[in-house]
TrEMBL record, chains A, B:
The keyword Transcription applies. InterPro entries: Bact_HTH_transcr_reg, Tscrpt_reg_HTH_GntR, UTRA. Keywords: DNA-binding, Transcription, Transcription regulation. This is GntR family transcriptional regulator. CDD domains: WHTH_GntR. PANTHER family: MANNOSYL-D-GLYCERATE TRANSPORT/METABOLISM SYSTEM REPRESSOR MNGR-RELATED, MANNOSYL-D-GLYCERATE TRANSPORT_METABOLISM SYSTEM REPRESSOR MNGR-RELATED. Residues 5-73 form the HTH gntR-type domain. The keyword DNA-binding applies.
Length: 243, 243
């Protein structure tokens, strides 16, 4: 992740910082490409690459022949690809961090047992982590794995990064996932872990994940601070028939 | 919409009602196909069609050779297609309703002006509606249209149904939409309109819609009661590269 920044990364990081500290309102235009070239003393290539990066992150909207316009102050995760958190953060030039609260092997509780197709006698491995963006608590993650997969995680430092990447290296692939999004009020625990007031609205993503053989091996309940992370999706007409 | 119900619609409606009144827990199995055939005195065809309908609504999960399992008690809108509310409700066997609070032509305010690329001197048409599911307030909809499109709505009974369908009939198509999802606390107005306590978490969908010529003609801020509506999406591996 480290290493010297290329010119386009430098331009993207600076513009991203300005957008995040609200130097521009949503809808406001960024400086023109020419102005950015002059300010950063670079050619058009790096400027355009930086703008493409910010567009991909959902921060700006780009129209041909016009200056880019700020679309959102928050980083947004694209729902149609659902990139794992660590990878998404890195691509967006943010630093992902993890604070593991618990990795526990225990007998399956009601909801997880049902989602995973287990009985209350079966064991599962539950991982509870706070996920950080640039050091700030952004999400509380509750993942429950079937025992054969979850046991692999006792050999993994869950503070170090992506369980998705680790499990892929052990041959367990998140082959398909079903997500349900809603909103919940933060309880006392979530509020304390996220540094927000109890009752604050959180964006919740619940999911069930299947491996390459179609076996459900994980269910999860992830709760995001909406001031730090949103989700986005674009529908084109092919996917949106006229009524 | 009307007309006598076919056999599969009857089976779907009955199973849907049972799921919604929590006769089954999430994760619990429905009766087997054979049991359903016996109970409803129909052949396998209508039973399978009914189960496919409920699966499509996000209420159940179907695996080959096993009874269907309840996935959610709430109806869920699929994010990858983003069917208009009225059409989605009808397909799900629910009754959509609308209570128009305001249709107003006024000068563009800050955020909408920026999203629509207008100045504060330009006019927009703002539509504020409460959208109902089976008579219950489920969502507060705030749509802002550019004047040329919004003016068409003064000839439309906004209590009667889908603006999407009406505008398509007038040659204005929702060709592509960019959505951002997050969560917000209900303010006093939203709480009163939705019949919930102020501060309750709401699932918010903001969007910008373009017509067939790529022109942004609508921006919207829709706030859903998460106990009545959730959003769902399925990712398969093709859209989810390994890290």
């Amino acid at each position: 992740m480290a290493g010297p920044r290329s010119r386009h990364e430098h331009v993207a990081a600076e513009l991203r910082a300005r957008i995040r500290r609200r130097d521009y309102a949503v809808g406001q235009a960024l400086p023109t490409e020419s102005a950015l070239c002059a300010e950063f003393d670079v050619s058009r290539g790096p400027v355009r690459q930086a703008l493409a990066t910010l567009k991909n992150e959902g921060l700006i909207r780009v129209s041909r022949g016009k200056p880019a316009v700020v679309r959102s102050h928050e980083a947004t995760q694209r729902l149609d690809t659902f990139t794992p958190f660590t990878e998404w953060a890195e691509r967006a030039g943010r630093t992902a961090g993890n604070r593991t609260l618990e990795v526990a092997r225990r007998r399956a509780s009601g909801a997880a047992a049902e989602a995973l197709g287990l009985t209350a006698e079966d064991f599962v491995v539950e991982v509870l982590r706070v996920r950080l963006l640039d050091g700030e608590p952004a999400m509380v993650e509750r993942s429950t794995f079937i025992d054969s997969v979850g046991s692999l995680l006792f050999e993994f430092d869950t503070d170090s990064g992506s369980m998705t990447a680790y499990l892929a290296g052990r041959g367990v692939h998140f082959d398909s996932m079903e997500h349900v999004l809603d909103a919940v009020a933060a309880g006392a625990d979530d509020a304390a872990n996220l540094g927000i007031a109890p009752g604050s609205p959180l964006l919740r993503e619940r999911r069930v994940s299947r491996d390459q053989n179609g076996v459900v091996f994980e269910c999860a309940d992830d709760r995001y601070r909406p001031d730090l992370v949103t989700f986005s999706i674009v529908n084109a007409r092919t996917s949106f028939p006229d009524p």
